[in-house]
Amino acid sequence: MPPYVATVPLAHDDVGQGPTVLLLHPFPLNRLFWRPMVQRLGGALRTIAPDYRGFGDSPAQPPFTINAYGQDVAALLDGLGTGPVVVCGVSMGGYVALELWRRRPDLVRGLVLAHTRAEADGEAQAEARRANIARVRDEGPAALVGRMFEGMLGATTHATRPAVVELVRSGMTHAPRQGTLGALEALLARADSRPTLPTITVPTVVVSGDEDVLTPPPLQDVIAAGIRGARRAVIPQVGHLGPIEDPVRFAGLLRAFVEPMPR
Questions:
Q1: All domains in the chain, ordered by first residue
Q2: For the segment 196-206, what is each residue's pLDDT rounded down to a tens digit?
Q3: Contact status, residue 53 vs residue 10, Cβ threshold 8 Å
Q4: 71/223 Cα distance (integer angstroms)
Q5: 55: number of Cβ within 10 Å
Q6: What is d(CA 28, CA 236) in angstroms, rounded to the nearest whole number?
Q7: Up-side HSE of residue 104: CA atoms within 13 Å toward CB?
Q8: Cα 185 to the chain's mean position, in Å?
Q9: Is the pTM of this model over 0.90?
Q10: Is the predicted pLDDT of residue 5 greater than 90, yes or no?
């Protein structure tokens, strides 16, 4: 593995009391993604939600790699003195969570891997990723809305949750250019995490949305099958962004997983 790069200070929210959960947001959004769910938690858990480098209020300092994102969040936890935490990653956040496990398992006491996959990009996905990089260079991050937006949310959310639809559309439209390009390159270059799965020895729950077309539930079945003792959860009537599509249900799932853990 390549060595860690120098870290950048991450803007973050640190809310609540009790067991600590690190919340890792999906591409191309930022830590605001988590706020509806954190509000539903009502302070029952301590949640730390950072912006990756190049997103939200964090500096856009190269290099942009999954390795760098993992180092940044490790440094954040070290700086806060949290000790081991439960790490909850959605989509790209799942890739960062697995990187954190590879590099700093001492910081991980449990994993929630949601709407994500273990495999690296196949050739078709890589080609689509390169096309998106070209579009963002030419037109800015708003170009991704036409390419990705429909699949980001489930059919039920598109039909019945207009506030969520607008929130996600706005987040994608206003994503920062340099961070978006950097993250696309990071996603394209990321490693296959399937060899990592058998090394995971902490409690893990793998979460799907039954309407997710970007990472359908069979991809999460692969993750769960590779981790000894992993639990599976499927949230009905949500797509790729369960914590914002159904924050009440996701908050309940998170509490049910975290609170019984020995402290």
A1: 12-258 (3.40.50.1820)
A2: 999 999 999 99
A3: yes
A4: 23
A5: 26
A6: 23
A7: 24
A8: 16
A9: yes
A10: no
